[in-house]
Amino acid sequence: MNNPLLEKFDAAPFSKIKNEHFLxxxxxxxxxxxxxxxxxxxxPDSPSFENTVxxxxxxxxxxxxxxxxxxxxxxxxxxxELQQIAQEVSPLLSEFKNDLLLNEPLFQRVKTVYGxxxxxxxxxxxxxxxxxxxxxxxxxGANLPEEKKVQLRKIDAELAQSTLKFGExxxxxxxxxxxxxxxxTDLAGLPESIKEAxxxxxxxxxxxxxxxxxxxxxxxxxxxxxxxxxxxxELSLAFGSKGFHENAANNEAIVLTIVNLRxxxxxxxxxxxxxxxxxxxxxxxxxxxxxxxxxELLIKAKPAAxxxxxxLEAFAKKLDGIDRLExxxxxxxxxxxxxxxxALDDETLxxxxxxxxxxDGVFLVANKLYGLNFNEVHYIDTYHADVKTYEVQxxxxxxxxxxxxxxxxxxxxxxxxxxxxxxxxQIKNGVNERPHVSIVCNFSKPTPDKPSLLTFNEVxxxxxxxxxxxxxxxxxxxxxxxxxxSVFWDFVELPSQVMExxxxxxxxxxxxxxxxxxxxxxxxxxxxxxxxxxxxxxxxQTLRQLSFGLLDMAWHGSDPSNINNVKAxxxxxxxxxxxxxxxxxxxxxxxxxxxxxxxxxAGYYSYKWxxxxxxxxxxxxxxxxxxxxxxxxxxxxxxxxxxxxxxxMDLYVQFRGQKPNPEALLRRAGLLGSKN
Length: 676
Known about the structure:
- A 5-stranded mixed sheet has the order 3-4-5-9-6. The protein has a two-stranded antiparallel sheet with strand order 1-2.
- The relative contact order is 0.10.
- The protein has helices at residues 19-41, 49-57, 61-76, 80-101, 104-115, 124-138, 146-176, 192-204, 216-225, 229-240, 252-268, 274-279, 287-320, 327-342, 346-349, 355-370, 456-473, 494-500, 506-512, 524-533, 538-556, 566-573, 593-596, 606-624, 629-640, 648-656, 663-669, and strands at residues 179-181, 210-212, 373-377, 388-393, 399-406, 418-423, 426-428, 431-433, 436-440.
- The chain folds into 4 domains: 4-143, Glutathione S-transferase Yfyf (Class Pi), Chain A, domain 2 (Up-down Bundle), CATH 1.20.1050; 177-240, no CATH class; 249-343 and 541-676, Orthogonal Bundle (Neurolysin, domain 3); 351-534, Neurolysin, domain 3.
- It is α+β, with helices and mostly antiparallel strands.
- The termini are far apart.
- It contains 27 helices and 9 strands.
- The longest helix is centred in the middle third of the chain and has 34 residues, at 287-320.
């Protein structure tokens, strides 16, 4: 078979790739990479940094590229066939990873170099690569006796399949639910743009009426604006019960399988829990530090959150006689209270945030900060017609990166938003190979009458993912394994979260927030209200994020072998953060993809951790001017370009001149003088 994945390519050749190409290509590339590895392991020369560490880092580049294309497609443009291939590919890759990391002669060479690290001359990046490679072996069982290595392989293969199955179930449940409304009275409260989108969604499925789904652009506005409380409840329960129904897509057993396998794996490697294993390679260092961090924020946020909740409940009672605020009421009454308090809502703002304008805006911000230029090009192959492609250049016209952007929901695309990569940055044979970076979002599609208009929350989402993309695009390291977003997980959110700050600043908003029909710049009073409303219900929002972090630590911070009821365990974990009454028919864990499918297990706290970093970092920008090139250059030099070449706290201090101050976050959130 003529397989495009086995040929050399620069940009991914999407139009040539068929599903049947993946399995044979991955099998062939695993075999090829094994030969490369064996050559290093059997090298008769004494182990050195060059013939062992550098050589290992350079192996399998084509395999890495093909698997990244495959798994990115499985997230953004999947189908039953791809999902089936994923079930076959995952254990193969898991087995290959173990073949590499449990290769005794190879490990002995790495161990020898590591043992002589004090006496050989290595630069900072080489030292970090050696340390990470040695830890990669030791943390994956290289020091284990043979029978335990066999156990580890079995666990890893089961984990790979279980996490995949978890994600497939969540996607199936999301796609399976549809709420078709045929009475216009059921749409009371919904803005015209949402009704219009619901009409088109129904027509796309060959139906008459208005179709509401669990995709974010449909679900979120319905929960925020729909006056029909019964329908809000129906939608909320459907959203909250993904993976929790008595059907083939139930994830309860899979959750227990995943946490138990992770715990067994950690114990096998000599760690008390999965969280201890994970956090050894994080800024936070230990579960004790994470729990102390979350608890400190909880103490600060809880009084404010309770005050906000009581106020909201009283508001709902006054407005509609509701005695008890339920989960399906929160967004609806919060929006009404916000409108009353600030006379500002998403529908007022959306005309100023057409997707194309916001894209231009984020590009302009990147230009003013880092001198980047984004030129849309149409000759790059893409996996779907919706995907836009851009060549990125610096001020001198030098090529920086290739940038893909995929903005709209589809049935084959998982929910949420993420940044990913199709080709890493590295310096190889004296050539600085530039990266191919992609962001994937789920924003409302344009209609025949209107462009895609973003809610303010979607604007911040776009800036957030673009911050991750900058981290990838501006990477400038020798080794791909240390490049771009290959950093400690609780540092990776700093570039993304700091970018969100530009969405709230007058100087930035005036660059791109222009009415899609009239071209008028967003009025000053709207900007003022955006600033004032930025901390609206910040206590409740903080509590919500903390609840997710605490649930994650509960699942992964101790022995889960005695847990037999996912729902009961989750309720106990949520006890300190509960504001709303619990709903017996819903369960968050069964669709908590971040920790059971993505890479956030024992790491969800990192969103809040990075918020401390980003609040402190942006205070520096504000002191010097939000478009100050000197500060931006320091951020680029010490954060965006360095990847994982140094300890992240050292990088942060080089940028900021000091360690991050947690009070910067509390100041920004308005939680220093907590309400009571």
